[in-house]
Amino acid sequence: MSLFNEKLKNISLKEILILIIILFIIQFIFNSLNTVHINSVWIYICIIFYFIFRLKDNFSSLKQDFADVFSKEALKTIIIIVILNIFLSYGFLYLSSVVLSIFPDIINLISFQISSLYINNSLIAVGSIIASVFISPICEELVFRGVLLNRMKLIIPTVFSILFSSLLFASLHSYGSIVAAFIFGICMAILYLKTDNILVPIFAHFLNNLFAESIVILDTANVLFTNGLVIGIMSLLALLSFVLIMVFIFVELNNIK
Predict the structure, then answer these.
(1) Residue among 199, 217, 241 nearest 71 (CA)
(2) Residue 212 contacts residue 154 (beta carbons within 8 Å)
(3) Residue 199: alpha-carbon gap to chain centroid
(4) pTM of the predicted model as reported, rounded to 2 decimal places
(5) Is the pLDDT of residue 124 over 60?
(6) pLDDT-based confidence at residue 97 (cuts at 50, 70, 90)
(7) How far apart are CA 37 and CA 40, in angstroms?
């Protein structure tokens, strides 16, 4: 374990929660005054800078961590999980669309969820991609895996820490993506615990969001949601992905102490 990852584990959940609360209060005040609009992405950026400040003396130890991300075994696992998650995500999007068409009022039951960077329409297109592909993975992995997961497993069993941190992570996502995000969060937690290297889930999260954004950009005709044959194939792949990911999760959770 590098010095960076060791120091990351020493950051308390209390100080991160205080920081987040302060940032949300500042956002609320400025947005209420209708003078300067502070977007959620700026909260993410401020959180990242806080981690940089807290860990500034330990960045030199990241060289080996970075190299470990691209080891054959780690890279293979990352790519497999990301690809399976992409198919799984579309499967749940299809399923949520069906559920919403049958029960249109269900969206009101989850209106409490926090707005996500993934659906933030106030950013221009390029800014939105940067936020989703780069800013979001770094901030969310540092907070949910680097701090929350590490602190929670000191007081409750590790498996419950994984589930709890993944549930909070999923709450940041929009309707249709919550279940997939929950499963993805569990996978990221497993990757982090297996490698003791926060750069591994950050890179996996980066690839996941990059692929997702690329698909949205390339699918200009919205074929993935309008072509019956494509929807059928993607649904079958989603089902297969779900089975494979569940097997991976259960096997790994049974190996976690």
Answers:
(1) 199
(2) no
(3) 13
(4) 0.90
(5) no
(6) confident
(7) 10
